[in-house]
Automatic annotation (TrEMBL), chain A:
Belongs to the ABC transporter superfamily. GO terms for molecular function: ABC-type transporter activity; ATP binding; ATP hydrolysis activity. This is ABC transporter ATP-binding protein. PANTHER family: SPERMIDINE/PUTRESCINE IMPORT ATP-BINDING PROTEIN POTA (PTHR42781), SPERMIDINE_PUTRESCINE IMPORT ATP-BINDING PROTEIN POTA (PTHR42781:SF4). It comes from the Bacteria. GO terms for cellular component: ATP-binding cassette (ABC) transporter complex. Keywords: ATP-binding, Nucleotide-binding, Transport. The lineage of its organism: Bacteria, Pseudomonadati, Pseudomonadota, Alphaproteobacteria, Rhodobacterales. Residues 6-236 form the ABC transporter domain.
From TrEMBL, chain B:
Its main location: membrane. PROSITE patterns: ABC_TM1 (PS50928). This is Polyamine ABC transporter permease. It comes from Roseovarius atlanticus. The lineage of its organism: Bacteria, Pseudomonadati, Pseudomonadota, Alphaproteobacteria, Rhodobacterales. It comes from the Bacteria. It is a multi-pass membrane protein. PANTHER family: PUTRESCINE TRANSPORT SYSTEM PERMEASE PROTEIN POTI (PTHR43848:SF2). The chain crosses the membrane at residues 12-34, 69-89, 101-125, 131-152, 181-202, 236-257. InterPro entries: Bact_Polyamine_Transport, MetI-like, MetI-like_sf. Keywords: Cell membrane, Membrane, Transmembrane, Transmembrane helix, Transport. It is found in: Cell membrane. The keyword Cell membrane applies.
Length: 361, 265
């Protein structure tokens, strides 16, 4: 692997008593699409702002391409940012907005204009070049904001929830635009978002943050199927989380006794101690539902509480005898085979290989 | 709806009365400035521009007008710069005692003018700065800065705080961001503040009278004419002062306040 483009080494950022980022160590590779995801106040935006030089770390080191950046002013960096508010200059036209950075860097007028128009064309908004940005639609403004940053030909583009103001169908389109741009340009994208669907759809790697700490780093698939801890398991997707006592552990499987029953779980890298309290997750879409008692090793009898219907996918909420809550996700057309209503008794089961043990309890 | 109608009539009358009280003296002054009779009596005499010709021929009035122009021009510029600086410091920085800082800046218009004038005179003469044209400019800059600040602050409050950071992020230094982002964004408010501070300075009498020495501005000149005798010239000058101030205030409106209304509606 080549040298990382960005390194965070034990970076901390405090605002008075509030710790926004606790102790971050993270490498960002050249050319990767990295998403930083978390709920509001988790420190994701502060991390991005430190990269842009808009905040200084309280402790630790941030390096970009090997150079220590802690005290480098924002305007001496090559880290253009696409703002959540877009922050387009309202008194300028689309083209003048795109030219702004080049003007600050002293590029001459003709060259500025040429490059700005080239980028506006590339973003398919060339025809609006001389329109005031106030008169453009949300999607067009978004493209102006991207062009304004990318015209600087940076090694790395920072994006702070850039799609949060757009309608759902426009978000999907812009996701396509962004991933394609990132592939074509081959530069690093650091994308901050609270939206799981945006992060998972676009990123090569996702960093999940919680209260100033990194909760997990991994590919979208890793994080979705193998959440590292309870926070990630609850934050991501629809997971069933069960907690119990380790009864017996082999290198292959571990037997865990929970109030809802005793289940087999895949043994993680470090074998859990017998007698300790551990938790595991089963993703809601990997749980099967049947009316007859199944033969699978991991099964539990449960009662339907309610259902949530989103388009073609349905999530059923159920409860086992001891009050453990279960979620099952399936296609709506599958569900039609069963005649279910609140209170119906069903069997739930899952494969041992789909039960993933979490770190800690 | 009859109750509403009665209320509407009462409110309409009330507004009418306010307008009469405000504008009657001005209309009176305008009418008699164009009347041939020496004393303001009814029935009116003939239409005449005699008084305007007289003031146009009076070098003292010309000098006063020139002084007023210089004073209001300079103090508008200085007051607006001061006002902009304080408005920007409020926008950009948060610091301890910011509340008292802002209150202190907004204080001058709340002090009775006569007290302000006396204090200015005492202070400027102690420094050996009184009795000059620029004594009035200094005093008026202090007096008008809060108006400029209020207008520019209103504009800055509407600015996305990310705009300035976006300019830095795109390679602009703090000065470049100021020049290419903050100033253009505030331009309508700055023009409006220049007009308004010029109008305030142009009309101001008490402070000008105390610190001006022999350098009379128009309001001071008016007082001196009135002190001597009743002279319809005053009506002519008054009309001129009124039109100048109104023009400035309306310009201020056009540049800023009407835009605000359009933005919010």
């Amino acid at each position: 692997m080549s040298d990382p483009l960005v390194t965070f080494r034990n970076v901390q950022k405090r605002f008075g008593d509030f710790v926004a980022v606790r102790d971050m160590t993270l490498d960002i590779q050249p050319g990767e699409f990295l998403a930083i995801m978390g709920s509001s106040g988790c420190g994701k935006t502060t991390t991005l702002r430190m990269l842009a030089g808009l905040e200084q770390p309280t402790r630790g080191e941030i390096r970009i391409a090997g150079r220590l950046m802690n005290d480098v002013k924002p305007h001496d960096r090559d880290t253009p940012l696409v703002w959540q508010s877009l922050a387009l200059f309202p008194f300028l036209t689309a083209r003048e907005n795109v030219e702004f950075g080049l003007k600050m860097r002293g590029v001459d007028k003709a060259e500025r204009k040429r490059r700005a128009l080239e980028w506006l064309d590339r973003m398919h908004i060339g025809e609006f070049a001389d329109r005031s940005v106030d008169t453009l639609s949300g999607g067009q403004k978004q493209r102006v904001a991207l062009a304004r940053s990318l015209v600087m030909e940076p090694q790395m583009l920072l994006l702070d929830e850039p799609l949060s103001a757009l309608d759902a169908n426009l978000v999907i389109r812009m996701q396509g635009v962004l991933t394609q741009l990132q592939k074509e340009l081959g530069i690093t994208f650091v994308y901050v978002t609270h939206s799981q669907s945006e992060a998972f759809a676009m990123a090569d790697r996702v960093v999940i943050m919680s209260q100033g700490d990194i909760a997990q780093i991994g590919t979208p698939k890793d994080i979705y199927r193998a959440p590292a801890n309870r926070f990630v398991a609850e934050f991501v997707g629809r997971n069933n989380i069960l907690t119990g006592t380790v009864k017996e552990a082999s290198s292959e499987t571990t037997r865990l006794a929970t109030p809802a029953g005793t289940f087999m779980v895949e043994t993680p890298e470090t074998e859990p101690q017998t007698g300790t309290k551990r938790s595991f997750v089963v993703s809601a879409d990997l749980v099967s539902l049947s009316l007859e008692e199944p033969t699978a090793a991991n099964r539990v009898h449960a009662k339907v509480i309610s259902e949530e219907f989103i388009g073609s996918v349905v999530t059923l909420f159920l409860e086992s005898g001891d009050g453990q809550e279960f979620k099952v996700q399936m296609q709506e057309r599958q569900l039609m085979n069963y005649d279910l209503h609140a209170g119906s008794q069903v069997w739930l089961s899952w494969e041992t290989e789909n039960a993933h043990m979490l770190d800690g309890d | 709806m009859t109750g509403n109608r009665a209320l509407n009539i009462v409110l309409g009358l009330y507004v009418l009365l306010i307008f009469i009280f405000v504008f009657a003296p001005i209309v009176f002054s305008l009418v008699f400035s164009l009347n041939s009779q020496r004393f303001p009596t009814i029935p009116l005499g003939e239409f005449s521009t005699e008084w305007y010709e007289k003031i146009l021929a009076d070098p003292d009035i010309w000098r006063a007008a020139l002084n007023s122009l210089i004073v209001s021009g300079c103090s508008a510029v200085l007051g607006t710069i001061l006002g902009f600086a304080t408005a920007y410091s409020d926008f950009r920085y948060s610091f301890r005692f910011k509340g008292p800082y802002l209150a202190l800046i907004l204080l001058p218009p709340t002090i009775p003018l006569i007290i302000m004038a006396l204090a200015m005179l005492a202070w400027l003469s102690r420094l050996g700065l009184s009795g000059q044209l620029w004594s009035i400019i200094i005093a008026h800059s202090v007096l008008t800065a809060p108006f400029a600040m209020a207008i520019i602050r209103l504009r800055l409050q509407q600015m996305d705080p990310d705009l300035e950071a976006a300019a830095w992020n795109l390679g602009g230094s703090e000065w470049q961001a100021m020049r290419h982002v903050i100033l253009p964004f505030c331009a309508p408010a700055i023009v409006s503040a220049l007009c308004l501070t010029a109008a305030v300075s142009f009309d101001e009498f008490a402070v000008a009278w105390f610190v001006s020495g022999l350098n009379k501005t128009v309001p001071v000149a008016i007082l001196e004419i009135v002190q001597g005798n009743i002279d319809p010239q005053v009506n002519a000058i008054g009309t001129f002062v009124f039109l100048t101030s109104m023009t400035l205030v309306i310009l201020a409106q056009v540049f800023f306040i009407s835009r605000q209304i359009r933005k919010t509606s």
